[in-house]
Design brief:
The complex is a heterodimer of chains A (163) and B (185). Chain A is mostly helical and 163 residues long. Chain A has one domain (3-161). In chain A, 80% of the residues lie in helices and 0% in strands. Chain A is built from seven helices and no strands. Chain A is elongated. By secondary structure, chain B is mainly α. Chain B folds into two domains: 5-64, no CATH class; 70-173, Winged helix-like DNA-binding domain superfamily/Winged helix DNA-binding domain (Arc Repressor Mutant, subunit A, Orthogonal Bundle). Chain B is 69% helix and 0% strand. Chain B contains ten helices and no strands. Classes of the chains: A mainly alpha (163), B mainly alpha (185). Chains A and B meet through α1, α2 and α7 of A and α1, α2, α6, α7 and α10 of B.
């Protein structure tokens, strides 16, 4: 070990010792009062302006369930709309006879389309679908987060005091 | 809260060197602790949890102002001379030992406050928070070599500040921390 390395190590050891011997800095006397004041102010807020964790269970459960159901619902509705659109297009091409087949044919097409998609979907497409689903979830949660930050006053503190 | 407020405030103020910002950050730490009160109330790890949250919130806050000090941090070369290292070690070894405990503590605290951000932050993370060099580099988004150089220079700069005669004066005679100039590396 070179002389410089030895000096370097010695300096590190000395600085560590000096800094760790330092007592804690005293917090300002106003800190406790500020925290208590904020807690009191938050407890006066209505439940819908607090964090999701503080919401009543009878509200929280339906909201979370609704969010979980939302994305599959979008997929099902999209498939249904696409099927209807395809059926409508076919009806225009095939003439009035196609319109007589009605809803039964549409439902059958939907079932066949769904089965076909799941049987023949390429791996890349499957991956793309998963990414799209994840993106939809991310967008959903981002919207919730934005709404939350607009309603919840803690973030106002960040803007006012820390910037 | 009383048991931990000094620890939380110390963590924040040593990283920011700004008591007003440190108080804001400490307030936020305790509000988050209140939200997790049921879990923390009987946990033996409450102190560690508070320290971690205080460190993370402070670093998040500092990151917002990162562009300001990153410029300085990116321009570097390890040009610290051997004599400077020897002289710095002597300050920490003998000069400080000759002082009364209270004056020594005040001088060290104030020298730390006067270091520029890019030296003080890694120095505090290394010596107070006991973070490894690589973790500091990852957290601050700078290279490992840069972290080591900044910490080394920080130690030398701190020794230089400790030699100055105007350091260690009472707080009410000092300039507000917001007007402190950054020391040059």
């Amino acid at each position: 070990m070179s002389s410089r390395d030895q000096t370097d190590e010695k300096l590190e050891r000395l600085v560590s010792q000096v800094l760790r011997d330092q007592p804690l800095r005293h917090a300002p006397a106003s800190l406790e009062a500020r925290v208590m004041s904020q807690i009191a102010a938050r407890s006066r807020l209505p439940w819908w302006r607090r964090g999701v964790a503080a919401w009543p269970a009878m509200v929280r459960v339906p909201v979370i369930t609704g969010c979980a159901v939302c994305v599959p619902l979008v997929w099902v509705l999209s498939l249904w709309l696409m099927t209807r659109l395809a059926a409508a297009t076919r009806a225009r091409i095939a003439g009035p006879l196609a319109t007589l087949q009605g809803t039964g044919h549409t439902l059958a097409s939907l079932g066949a389309l769904t089965a076909h998609i799941f049987q023949s979907i390429p791996r890349d497409w499957l991956l793309g679908g998963m990414i799209a689903t994840a993106t939809l979830y991310a967008v959903l949660f981002a919207l919730v987060a934005v709404g939350y930050s607009l309603l919840y006053p803690r973030h106002e503190y960040s803007k006012v005091h820390l910037t | 809260m009383r048991a931990y407020q000094d620890m939380v405030f110390s963590t924040a103020v040593r990283l920011t060197s700004n008591p007003a910002q440190a108080e804001d950050i400490s307030q936020e730490v305790f509000l988050r602790a209140y939200e997790s009160f049921d879990n923390l109330r009987s946990s033996p790890k409450a102190g560690g949890w508070l320290k971690t949250v205080a460190t993370n919130l402070t670093l998040n806050h500092l990151t917002r102002h990162r562009k300001r000090w990153r410029l300085f941090s990116e321009i570097f070369s390890d040009d610290t001379r051997d004599e400077e290292l020897d002289s710095a070690a002597e300050v920490f070894d003998t000069v400080l030992a000759e002082l009364e405990a209270d004056e020594r503590r005040a001088r060290v605290e104030q020298a730390l406050e006067r270091l520029p951000d890019h030296q003080r932050i890694p120095l505090v993370l290394y010596h107070y928070e006991e973070m490894p060099y690589q973790d500091i580099a990852d957290r601050l988004g700078i290279s490992l070599a840069k972290v080591k150089t900044d910490i080394l220079r920080g130690r030398v700069a701190m020794a230089g500040l400790l030699r100055q005669s105007d350091i260690g004066v009472p707080d009410d005679r000092r300039r507000p921390s917001s007007t402190q100039p950054g020391a040059q590396s």
